[in-house]
Design a protein that fits this description.
By secondary structure, the chain is α/β, with parallel strands linked by helices. Helix content is about 35%, strand content about 20%. It has an eight-stranded mixed beta sheet, sandwiched between helices. Helix 3 links the parallel strand 5 (about 100-105) and strand 6. Helix 2 (about 80-90) packs across helix 3. The protein is globular and about 55 Å long.
Length: about 280
């Protein structure tokens, strides 16, 4: 059976916050969990979903304070808390095994979920997120939103977002709207939490002892994280690193076909390894 527009809400009872969840694809197919980055939402995966649902159950979440999930309240925005909420949202769906895929800071959440729930996460995919803060090269500070956020024009938002894409990519209005809709306080809290998570330990240091298959996809023209730093993920035994020429920080939007091709090939390799 194919699920179409299956929209759910998972409740984190410890703080009463709702996490918006959407599913597409066959319910009995292997599951892919797609986790967006800071100031985005699950809709940032829209161009890739049709390329994945022929063979996979695709699950997307809106992290707390993003998209259609609940707002700030008294919640914590640490990476560990975000991962815990995602895991809790998956439990009612009956998902027992999933490949966790994170774009940008969503890669930190995917890593934390694998740390917390090694029984649930069978493999990890990180798309354009640096292994440590030393790999960050964007000039703007992601933790300092403008004072008058609501007064910014669309073009000013696009300028803020520019490092998230290759120079010749036209940022879709929908993505601008997603960024505009984020509470600036959420943006600051999440950005600081992401930096703190990397400062505690690098992602390769966190992933290596888990023994999970790892795929790292990086746009060769990323202007937010140093593309050459993707090679540092090879410290994780058996890691696969893919550089996409001509692509910036957001391969899921800039080049969905090549990104999906790498992801599906990795998923097939993981499935074959499990069968053997």
């Amino acid at each position: 059976m194919t699920i179409s527009n299956n929209e759910l809400r998972g409740v984190d009872k410890s703080i009463g916050s709702e996490i918006y969840v959407r599913q597409d694809g066959p319910r009995d197919a292997p599951a892919l969990l797609l986790i967006h980055g800071t100031a985005a939402s699950g809709r940032s995966w829209d161009p890739m979903v049709p390329l994945l649902t022929g063979s996979h159950r695709v699950i997307r979440v809106d992290l707390l304070g993003c998209g259609q999930s609940a707002g700030l309240g008294d919640a914590n925005y640490t990476v560990s808390d975000q991962a815990r909420r995602v895991g809790a949202a998956l439990d009612p769906l009956g998902v027992e095994r999933v490949i966790a895929v994170g774009h940008s800071s969503g890669g930190a959440v995917a890593t934390a979920l694998a740390e917390q729930r090694p029984d649930l996460v069978t493999a990890v995919v990180i798309i354009d997120f640096g292994p440590h803060m030393g790999a960050y090269i964007a000039q703007e500070s992601s933790a300092r939103p403008p004072v008058k956020w609501a007064d910014l024009t669309d073009e000013q938002f696009r300028e803020m977002m520019r490092s998230g894409f290759s120079a010749d990519y036209t940022i879709p209005q929908e993505y601008v709207d997603q960024f505009r809709a984020i509470d600036p306080a959420v943006f600051v809290a999440a950005s600081q939490a992401n930096c703190g998570y990397l400062d505690e330990r690098s992602l390769p240091e966190r992933l290596a002892p888990l023994g999970k298959p790892l795929l790292v996809i990086f746009g060769a023209n990323d202007s937010r994280w140093r593309p050459s730093a993707a090679a540092e993920y090879r410290a994780v035994p058996g890691a696969t690193v893919v550089l996409l020429p001509g692509v910036g920080h957001s391969p899921n939007l800039e080049d969905p076909p090549r990104t999906a091709e790498s992801l599906l090939a990795f998923a097939a390799k993981c499935a074959a390894a499990e069968r053997n």
